[in-house]
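Example record

The entry below shows one chain as it appears in the dataset: sequence first, then structure tokens.
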Amino acid sequence: MFPFFNVFGKTISMYSIMALAGALCAGLYSCRAALRRFPDYMDTLVLLLISAAGAVVGGHILYAFTQYEELFYFLGNFGKINSFRSMAGVLSYLFGGSVFYGGLLGGILFGMIYLKKGKKNFYEYGDIVAAAIPLFHAFGRVGCFFSGCCYGVECSFGITFSSSPVPGANGVPRFPVQLLEAGFNMTLFILLAVLFYNNKIKGRLFILYLIIYSCARFCFEFLRGDEIRGFLLGFSTSQIISAAVFIISLFLFIRRRKTEEFSVMRNI
């Protein structure tokens, strides 16, 4: 499609541009949303930066685990690597990609550590950043479409890639699952933002995001044509994670609701 362009002799990826645009939009939204709940937005901005670092780490780690055969081979033959260049090449191959769920879970972990250390309420800040995640993700999936990665299954009415970094993705019409997921994430952003600004489902918006997205992602995976992310028992890695995220999030959503109802009853 349009994976790269040159500026003053330097090659810049469209994915990087879209990810940067998404990060800026998500950050601006979160800071404005924070002002509705807190005196300033600095704590939210720090939370976003720390969570972003966790997302980078988590995304690359989960990608390496999806290449488990190569990872185990590397660990078993670690002593045979005799040069820094060879080590760098192997690490670049193993950790060179990123998986969204790894980034999401890594961001949640780093964010929770920051909030717990600062004795801040996870659910309050979760409401603020809930809509920012699908907003960023929508931009990212458009970047995936331009880059030709995360491509869809073959279909007669699809879009044919010619410059995808994955040779097998080129030359055949493929369903534009990246654009479908981008549109879904933008719709989810609007829904969560409206709920937030109307003070609906207060304290549970982040959990609601996890419930809705995990269901949708499980379905989107049937339309994905790239198999590099690994499979287990006929399901992709992301489908297995989606099922786990859905079950845990649904449990937390129900428990949180019962806790709030009990608190209201005590105050009557």
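Notes for this example: The beta strands are 4-7, 10-13, 154-160, 173-174, 231-232, 235-236. The first strand starts at residue 4 and ends at 7.
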